[in-house]
Amino acid sequence: MTEEPIVQEFTGPSLGAMLRGWRERALLTQEQLAERAGLSVRTIRRLEGDHPHRPRGTSLSLLAAALSLNAAEQRRLITTARAGIAPAGDAAAPRQLPRATAPFVGRRTELSALDAARATAEVLAVVGCAGIGKTALAVHWAHRVADRFPDGHLYVNLHGFDPNPQPLHPAEAIRNFLHALGVPRQRVPADTNAAAAMMRSAMAGRRLLIVIDNARDAAHVRPLLPGGTGCLVIVTSRNQLPGLIAAGAAPVVLDPLPDADARQLLTGRLGSVRADAEPQAVAEIAALCGGLPLALCIMAARAATHRGFSLGALAAELRATGGRLDALSGHDSFADLRGVFSWSYRILSAAAARMFRLLSLHPDHDIGVPAAAGLAGLPARQAHRLLTELHHAHLLAEPTPGRYRQHGLLRAYAAELTEIHDACP
Question: Rounded to two decimals, what is the model's pTM?
Fold first, then answer.
């Protein structure tokens, strides 16, 4: 790894002597230590020879992990390295958080839950259905606590649910994290496990805030988790992430916005003058969107680009039989509700996809396992497995044990799919 030249030389051989002693204790050659730490042999030789170069903080972390130094030895390494050299800052701490959504509305209970969970958990899982506002909440809260993580903020979108059928591979996310922490890309091992070990070494001893957005499942996230304490990870996913939660992650499950918050979100986007002129239309649009933030934002954008349309006309369009999703469609795939829903639907098993479609034929929004089994013509045990799969994908809610409910907009989407796939010839 490239070192930074300095003016003042080390005042003694203490740094080099310590490194040599620890390397020999570990029964490693300079070449073996370089390979284990992901540094160049030249760097190891420079450091052991007390060459007048300042080791980066990342290099020290990698060496400490490679040599299995305990906490006291790590402090000695850092103190000694910095005591004999002129001040020179490490590469700037990464600041990768996306811009927070403005205005941010509601979610007071969820924000309090994140505040409380931070005291006891190192991984927070924000989960919920498509369009429910997971990323907006995670990024908003991350900005609120960002100043408590002086060593930087990392962000990655894993694209677990978006138009690209191939999510971002964890190895690429690891390379991006390491590069942000000062490790040249050419130093990162090709093997994912080795790269993850290097990443954990680079993060050791740092206080980092890490936002992992749009994860497909727990396996998609695990390689990206730090190995020690001091870092905080926020994960968002449409999957319930039971594997992460079983391992100690704190879940925050998002429900649709209450009516008052949904109206406030619309008013903030529309402007109070326009919203106050048609309060009934605002209330109706909020109700027809079912408290789904993405649907509310799509309608607000439609109103903004059609200034000559009354809000009542937009509400009527949304209310029209068969036109509910038409009013929430657009050319931008991220502002087309059908498209956004489809990214969850397409990864279902064939049997769960069929169950999802057929549930739209049930006269009530709530359904139990026996009724779902009868609707699909399946044994109750198999029907329960499929309902569980849909629940884990947040395509169904389970408000009470054994009772399942489709969000109104998801139900409309399922009904459209039923007409395409399940209509009688």
Answer: 0.75
